[in-house]
Write a structure and sequence with these properties.
The chain has 283 residues and is α+β, with helices and mostly antiparallel strands. It has eleven helices and six strands. A hairpin with a 3-residue loop joins strand 4 and strand 5. The longest helix has 25 residues.
C-alpha cells in the first residue's frame, strides 16, 4: 500500500514543494511540510479521493498556513533584513520572482494563499474556498486585496536570461575589480541593496537606498572583494532574477540576485545567512 501511495505522491512532490516554498519562503520548511503531507497521505483512505493532486495541494496549503503563524513570530525577532531562501535555476521561477515573494510576505497568510492558488496555480475560487475554509466570494476578495498589494512587485521589464546573466557578469566584474566608474554606469539612480545575514555573518541591518549610498557601500567593500578574495562559483538565475553564487572573504558563501529595469540594476539582493544556503551547491 505504501508503494502505491508513493507512486501517486512522488510525481507531485516537485509541484507541492513549489507551493510550499512560495508560501513559506524557506526551502527547508517547504520540504518538511511536503514530507508531513506525504505521511498524512499514507494515513488517508485514498480510495475515496478522486483528485489526488487537488487534495494534496489542499493539505500542503493548510500545513503552510499553520506554519506561517509561528513564522511570523520568528520574523519579528530576526536579526536584520529577512529575504527568502534563494532558489537557484528553478525553471519556472518567472511566475514568482524575489520582489514578488517579498510583497507576498507583507500579506496575511490567507491573502497569500488565495493569491498564489489563483494567480500562480490557476485554481478556481470554489476549490480555493474548500482549501481555506471560506466561501468563494471571500476568497475572491482575499485574492483581489492581495493583487492590489503586489501589483507594483510584478516585473515591469521582461529580461531575457542571456541578457540578464551578461549584466550579472558585468556587475560581478566591476564590483570585484573595484571599477567604481563602471559599476556606477550599471546602476539606476534609485538602486537599493538588501542583505540577509540573519545575525550569523556580517550583513547590513537595513536597506541601502540610492546610487550615492550604494556606491559608498561598494567603495568600502572593494578592499574585501579585490585581490582574489571573492571567488565566483557560477552565474545563475536566482528566484527568477539574474545573479551569481560566490564565495567571499572568510569562506562565506552568498547569493546575489539583481532586479533589472531598462538594462540597469535597480535592486541588489544578497543572502549570506549560512542557514539559508545549505542547499546551494558551491563546487
Amino acid at each position: 500500500m505504501s508503494d502505491d501511495a508513493a507512486a501517486v505522491f512522488d510525481p507531485l512532490r516537485p509541484q507541492l514543494t513549489r507551493v510550499a516554498y512560495r508560501m513559506l519562503g524557506s526551502v527547508a520548511d517547504a520540504e518538511d511540510v511536503v514530507q508531513d503531507a506525504f505521511l498524512r497521505w499514507l494515513a488517508t483512505d485514498r480510495s475515496a479521493i478522486v483528485e489526488p493532486e487537488a487534495f494534496l495541494r489542499r493539505v500542503v496549503t493548510r500545513l503552510c498556513l499553520d506554519q506561517l503563524k509561528s513564522a511570523r513570530v520568528r520574523r519579528e525577532t530576526y536579526v536584520g533584513e529577512w529575504l527568502p531562501e534563494p532558489v537557484v535555476e528553478e525553471a519556472d521561477d518567472e511566475d514568482v520572482t524575489l520582489p514578488l515573494m517579498l510583497a507576498l510576505e507583507r500579506l496575511s497568510p490567507l491573502e497569500r494563499a488565495a493569491f498564489l492558488l489563483h494567480e500562480v496555480f490557476g485554481e478556481d475560487f470554489e476549490t480555493i474556498a474548500e482549501t481555506l475554509g471560506r466561501d468563494a466570494a471571500a476568497c475572491r476578495q482575499l485574492a483581489a486585496r492581495a493583487r492590489v498589494h503586489v501589483r507594483e512587485a510584478r516585473p515591469r521589464y521582461k529580461v531575457e536570461k542571456a541578457a540578464g546573466l551578461e549584466l550579472a557578469a558585468a556587475f560581478f566584474s566591476a564590483s570585484r575589480d573595484g571599477d567604481m566608474a563602471r559599476l556606477r554606469g550599471l546602476l539606476t539612480a534609485d538602486v537599493s541593496v538588501h542583505s540577509d545575514g540573519g545575525g550569523k555573518v556580517r550583513a547590513g541591518f537595513r536597506p541601502v537606498l540610492g546610487v550615492e549610498d550604494v556606491m559608498k557601500l561598494h567603495a568600502s567593500l572593494a578592499r574585501f572583494m579585490t585581490g582574489g578574495q571573492s571567488r565566483l562559483v557560477r552565474f545563475a538565475m536566482i528566484n527568477g532574477l539574474p545573479g551569481f553564487v560566490s564565495e567571499e572573504a572568510g569562506g562565506v558563501v552568498q547569493t546575489t540576485a539583481l532586479e533589472v529595469q531598462d538594462g540597469r540594476v535597480a535592486a541588489i539582493y544578497v543572502v549570506r545567512n549560512p542557514d539559508k544556503l545549505r542547499h546551494v551547491a558551491v563546487h
